[in-house]
Amino acid sequence: MFSRSLLRTSALVARRQAPFVTRASVFAAMQPVGTRSYHAKVIDHYENPRNVGSLNKNDANVGTGLVGAPACGDVMRLQIQVDPETGVISDVKFKTFGCGSAIASSSYVTELVKGKTLDEALKIKNTAIAKELSLPPVKLHCSMLAEDAIKSAVKDYRSKRQVKQPTLGPEATATAAAAASV
Amino acid sequence: MFASHEPSEKSVSSFFQLFPKNFPSGGPPQDSLIVNPKSLRREYRTLQSENHPDISFGSTVLNAVKSEASSEGEDSETSFSSVINRAYSTLRNPYSKIAHFIQLTHPQKIDITQDDVSKEIIANFQKSSPDSAMEYKDMLMTVLEAHEALELAASESELDDLAIENDARIKESEEFLDSLIQQHSPIQNWDPIIMEAIRLKYWVNIHNGIKDWEPGKPVHLTH
Questions:
Q1: What is the extent of the structural domain holding B56?
Q2: How far is B199 from chain A (nearest CA, A)?
Q3: Does B7 fall in a domain?
Q4: Which of A97-101, A108-112, B140-144 has the lowest average pLDDT?
Q5: Max CA-CA distance within chain A?
Q6: Which terminal residue of chain A has fewer beta carbons within 10 Å of its beta carbon, N or C?
Q7: What family, per the record (chain B) (predicted)?
Q8: Is the pTM of this model over 0.90?
Q9: Are both B70 and B150 inside the same structural domain?
Q10: What is the interface pTM, i.e. ipTM, of the complex?
């Protein structure tokens, strides 16, 4: 069996080499003539997903969300790098194994949360993601994965800070507020 | 008896009963949940050859039901052929098989293939103890790693280890489900069964990913 670290490193290499052209052809093949077609934005995010990858999950400023969609068996990992001074999300990376809509929603959400504060990020609703990508109703739940992932990542970040932060100062107040809101 | 003529897709008629050779007592819990895939396929082909729209002979197994159906004025051979297709595709997939069993047997007839239904059960499971929450997270991590390993596999031979490992997971999961169903019949506590069914869904997805693997093709799940 592979060791975890070896797996991660080679995953990065493989990702760089992965030709996205093939994704385009797969997507085109998925659309039979005369049936519902996907919105251009979904296809764009699916063919060229933004912010794919990973951050150091052991970094105190990185929150990792790992969520699944039980009915589809999709999984998504979303990581946020937070500026401890401002509470603003400075970097985001994701990895999603799922259908086209799930990948597109994940990719779109990473663009959405970058530059937002944690509280702003928590306000993102899957309905907004679905609307932006014009997802059909049967694919609504795919965008739920992205909303769940954000919540999970913020929760992870805050639980990390809670242990390590002192009880005084602005961060402590923020943590207390976070704890109260959960 | 069968819901093939009802407009709703959500029929709760038993698919197990259509395969009496594999489920002689009408399905779990009386029968084992686990069947030999080859034996199921053989029965499916027999049923299909006896009930194919182009063939007018009927099987004794389905004759009674067929006359019922034809009284409703439908093309019975065509519809039975499609019911058998649906039943077979449900029963050959370990996840949809257990989901079908749950929908048939659960007091509330819940459909775990609905995302919100499963999520509520997972949320309760995670809240039940820190260990449960950790266990679910660990499972998701295993799923993610299996998909990543699949994504970076460069040749077909690299899939063998993944396939062996994952087939073992599916087998273990099915055996566990079968023991839960057999030992606690009638079933009082459904949560462990549903949680295991959810785990099985992830393993089945990995199985399909391995099956559909092609060099250079990105991992893409369809559902």
A1: 15-92
A2: 8
A3: no
A4: A97-101
A5: 62
A6: N
A7: Belongs to the HscB family.
A8: no
A9: no
A10: 0.77
